[in-house]
Write a structure and sequence with these properties.
single chain; 212 residues; 9 helices
Length: 212
């Protein structure tokens, strides 16, 4: 046996060793896709309930944001309410000297990070499906060489099944990412608008106090 055959046989054996972790990770992808789909549905229902009849521009016109009491803050969606609470915990001097912008960027980054799991699964799911397809196909061709057609058929079934599972998880993750992308954009837009109103209040506190 020459060196080339040793290397080829080693790679074939390594590919078969990877079969178990790849199949395990595909099951993890299936669980993650189902969890993401369920979470997305729950979030959709919650957002519709929270934003039914809510208009941020109208809410802002009712008075200063920083001096809003608890009953007035209650109609705000949770991300905006948390933003106001975080701003209130900081000193006004820190907010004027760049703290407001830093806080806003930090909250925007947190909102964007909610898209990371679904974006990762969009690429990982199909990739694992492809790997899970090619590994059994190698064993299938080896069975064909020995004339074991039954084993070959079984390996081919596994190969095509992993492809279907990988593509399915990637598709579910893509739909979730697309839905949440619009929600993230809306939340960031509203946070920037609210932060702009607060910045105006910090620059001209007397004018906004008269409006209240």
């Amino acid at each position: 046996m020459n060196l080339l055959q040793v290397l080829e046989n080693g790679l074939f054996a390594l590919g078969q060793v990877l079969r178990f972790p790849v199949m395990t990770l595909l099951w993890v992808c299936v669980a993650a896709a189902l969890f993401m789909a369920g979470s997305c549905l729950v979030e959709l229902v919650a957002r519709r309930r929270e934003r039914r009849g809510f208009d941020l521009a109208v809410w802002v016109k009712k008075g200063p944001v920083l001096d809003a009491d608890e009953p007035r803050l209650r109609p705000l969606p949770p991300p905006l309410r948390r933003l106001v609470e975080d701003i209130r915990r900081q000193r006004r001097q820190d907010l004027v000297s760049g703290g407001l912008e830093h806080l806003l960027l930090e909250r925007e980054e947190r909102v964007r990070q909610t898209l990371t799991p679904s974006r990762v699964l969009v690429k990982v799911g199909p990739s694992l499906g492809l790997i899970g397809t090619l590994i059994p196909m190698g064993a299938s061709l080896a069975s064909l060489a020995t004339g074991n057609l039954e084993a070959m058929a079984g390996q081919m079934v596994v190969a095509f099944t992993t492809t279907i599972i990988g593509l399915s998880t990637g598709t579910v993750a893509y739909v979730v990412a697309a839905a949440r992308q619009s929600w993230v954009a809306e939340t960031i837009r509203e946070q920037r608008y609210l932060a702009g109103q607060i910045a105006a209040e910090l620059e001209h506190p007397a004018a906004h106090a008269m409006r209240a």
